[in-house]
Amino acid sequence: QSLRIGLIPADGIGKEVIPAARAAIEALGSDIPKPQFVDLVAGWETFTRTGVALPQDTVDVLRNECDCALFGSVSSPSRKVVGYSSPIVALRKELDLYANIRPVVSVSAEVGQKASVDLIVVRENTECLYVKQEQLTDGPNGKEARATRLITEHASRRIGQMAFKLANARPRKHLTIIHKSNVLSVTDGLFRETVRSVPTLPGVDGKYDGVTIAEQLVDSAVYRLFREPEIFDVMVAPNLYGDIISDAAAALVGSLGLIPSINAGDSFVMGEPVHGSAPDIEGKGIANPLASIRSAALMLRHLGYTKGADRLDTAVDQVIREGKTLTPDLKGTSTTTEVLEAVLKKI
Ligand code: NAI
Ligand code: MG
């Protein structure tokens, strides 16, 4: 039996950190089924070469031939480019990876991590403003741009169920719902009420009685995240707020280069570092590979390979704690390869 893992490094530092994650998985030996890697393409470079950012073949191979996947990062342009659309946003929808789970944990104050950060951002991954229905029209006073923000009961319920399940499995069992329903009472109101109603769903039968529920408006949530991160355990949020909050939370632990995620659906899981393609450091060999290695761990854990996942996480934590082999984002002087070597040694 083997574990078939699709690899989509995509653009920029994705090409530098995904091979590191692959090497870390290979080092696990018999703790996981023999991994078989399938190289796949997507991204801006693929688009400029072929005119398509997410080739149908990539989607088909993931769907039909892979058990899971690792995605690097894409360099999406900030201007509108005809025919281009972010492949990661599309992949999440194509494979119905409705939950984006992003743990942020501090392990060492020595490397500039704020103490006692131990939280998970659970981000809805398929709708909100990321349905990308935008229109530009001419109004009486110039151009007018509109975007549709879609919040459905269905998607809010399943992300709520995922958040309750995760919260219930943690020692503190505390869930904070992030919204802005004081202003957006219809869309965020539906999100808030639907998540709140999860414990009353048929079949739940008091399973979540031990979970305490809090709410925080998204703006003050960011404020409190910086002042008193320890109040948060599991945070559940609509797509855009979850995107912003998880990058903010990354600052608490010193670098985006440390934060992993998985995109999870009912039948597929894709690990992905939270960071982007980091054009400012691309090609320099100094990208932090730890977010990607942790994403591999998270993916393996989701698939039930706890021992392999624990070994990856422990190795990463040890390297951070020792503080000797770190990339420049953590004020170190090591390269991607040196950090990978240090992790491999610990594994
Ligand atoms: P970014 O995450 O690429 O970079 C933000 C800052 O963090 C930069 O200073 C970068 O050097 C640093 N950083 C990020 N990852 C790092 C790592 N592993 N090691 C060391 N330093 C790291 O975000 P930015 O600059 O806003 O976006 C750049 C591009 O990435 C854009 O084209 C954007 O569309 C894309 N992007 C793609 C994502 C994805 O593929 N899921 C997510 C976020 C952005
Ligand atoms: Mg982001």
UniProtKB/TrEMBL annotation:
GO CC annotation: mitochondrion
Statement: the UniProt record of this protein carries the keyword Coiled coil: no
GO biological process assignments: isocitrate metabolic process; lysine biosynthetic process; tricarboxylic acid cycle
Domain Isopropylmalate dehydrogenase-like: 4-343
Superkingdom of source: Eukaryota
Pfam families: Iso_dh
InterPro entries xref list: IsoCit/isopropylmalate_DH_CS, IsoPropMal-DH-like_dom
Signal peptide residues on this chain, from the entry's feature table: none
UniProt KW keywords: Magnesium
Gene3D superfamilies linked to this entry: Isopropylmalate Dehydrogenase
Protein name as it appears in the record: Mitochondrial NAD-homo-isocitrate dehydrogenase LysB
